[in-house]
Design goal:
Layout (H helix, E strand, L loop, with lengths): L2 E8 L1 E5 L4 E3 L4 E2 L3 E5 L6 E8 L12 H12 L3 E4 L2 E3 L6 H19 L11 E7 L9 H16 L12 H9 L13 E5 L10 E6 L7 E7 L9 H11 L2 H22 L3 H20 L10 H19 L9 E4 L5 E6 L3 H11 L10 E5 L5
Parallel strand pairs: 7-9
Antiparallel strand pairs: 1-6, 2-5, 3-4, 5-10, 6-9, 7-8, 10-11, 12-14, 12-15, 13-14
Helix pairs in contact: 1-2, 2-3, 3-4, 6-7
């Protein structure tokens, strides 16, 4: 090992969902989205990237084209282990795109500054682990690609934390090409993915809306309703929606743009009632759009719908209880049946006890697992 760097990145849960691509190679979304990055304790990926010397030392004073050839040769020897199992990186595809972008950025730095250690021509060994089961149906690709991009950019000293010139938003453009939602996991707190207009994706990146510290009182509760990895994968599902759903068009043209504004101001003002309303309505609009797809995509199951009913009733009773009581909790569902609930700290015990009450057969460890989880610090 010539040099090694490690990074971890948490899962993020969208409150305004990304669903649809206008460019499937560059991963350019049909709409903006917004998420909350969770803390590192429960759901995160931990990735180490090492530049390794496998063969003879490189010649001193090599030419630029020889260095390009060396980088190409190294690429063919890059290797990845995911949760202990070696995965094929391949000569194209999302992983290759991310690694190539970062290696090219490092080669550029090495070309411009003769004093910089030459490591871009060395193969990479990447070792990544999640602290949650990949099969849990929770967004492992978001934390996985974010940790991968951050660890390689640290190894190559590209990000500003390691003395480089690339901002976190600039790196989010690379993570985006691994998995769209991954671009949001490079920031903590409340994060928007600005879809962008440029055809080359240069303005399609993540921006932090507010730090975690801004709204410490907000908690997330992850309800693993089913840990089976089944159903329509999001990448395939969203393309089917783009091809067949008329409802997606209204989501793109006004539902999401208006909601992005309202939820951003709800976050800025720490207005939980407004935040909850927008979060639940966007989840429902997203699942309605899935249902409008042909053939339809069903992600929610009976338990998911019971959770929706419970939270809706809870919020209604609070509304009836009098002025200013506001929403107790908000639910949101990604491309699967698992619920994520958001609630102010004072409401968490009530929400947990009602879930215990109404799901008496639930095993709180498996398969119905509840992980009270705080969004992480910035
Ligand atoms: C429902 O980011 O997994 O979770 O870009 O094809 O890798 P790809 O898709 P992915 O889709 C996530 C969809 C979602 C909503 C969201 O996280 O915004």
């Amino acid at each position: 090992i010539k040099r090694i760097a490690t990074a971890s990145a948490p899962v993020n849960i969208a409150v305004v969902k990304y669903w649809g691509k206008k460019d499937t190679k560059l991963i350019l979304p049909t709409n903006d989205s917004l998420s909350v990055t969770l803390d590192q304790d429960h759901l995160r990926s931990l990735t180490s990237s090492a530049a390794v010397e496998v063969e003879e030392e490189e010649e001193q004073g090599e030419s630029a084209s020889a260095s390009a050839a060396a980088a190409a040769a190294a690429a063919s020897k890059d290797r990845l282990w995911l949760n202990g199992v070696e995965e094929e990186i391949g000569s194209e595809g999302r992983l290759r795109t991310c690694i190539d972008e970062l290696r090219n950025a490092r080669r550029k730095v090495e070309g411009e500054d003769g004093g910089v250690e030459k490591i871009a021509h060395l193969p990479l060994h990447i070792v990544s682990e999640n602290n949650f089961p990949t099969a849990a149906g929770l967004a492992s690709s978001a934390s996985g690609f974010a940790a991968l991009v951050w660890s390689i950019s640290s190894l190559y000293q590209l990000n500003s934390d390691s003395g480089g010139h690339l901002s976190t938003s600039a790196l989010s453009r690379v993570a985006r090409q691994g998995s769209g939602s991954a671009c949001r996991s490079l920031f903590g707190g409340f994060v928007a993915w600005q879809g962008g207009e440029a055809k080359d994706g240069s303005d399609s990146l993540a921006l932090q809306v507010a730090e975690r510290e801004h709204w410490k009182d907000l908690h997330a509760i992850i309800c693993v309703i089913s840990d089976a990895k089944k159903g329509t994968p999001s990448t395939a599902g969203m393309q089917r929606t783009v091809q067949t759903s008329a409802a997606l068009q209204s989501r793109i043209s006004h539902v999401v743009p208006e909601r992005m504004q309202r939820i951003t101001s709800a976050i800025k003002q720490r207005d939980f009632d407004a935040f909850a309303k927008e979060t639940m309505r966007d989840s429902n609009n997203f699942h309605a759009t899935c249902l409008d797809t042909s053939p339809p995509i069903f992600y929610l199951n009976d338990t998911s719908r019971l959770v929706i009913q419970l939270v809706e009733e809870l919020n209604r009773s609070s509304e009836q209880a009098g002025a200013g009581a506001g929403a107790i909790a908000a639910y949101t569902f990604d491309a699967g049946p698992n619920a994520v609930l958001y609630a102010p700290e004072k409401n968490v015990p009530l929400v947990l006890s009602l879930i215990r009450h109404y799901f008496p057969n639930a095993d709180f460890d498996d398969p119905f697992k509840l992980l009270p989880s705080l969004p992480r610090d910035g």
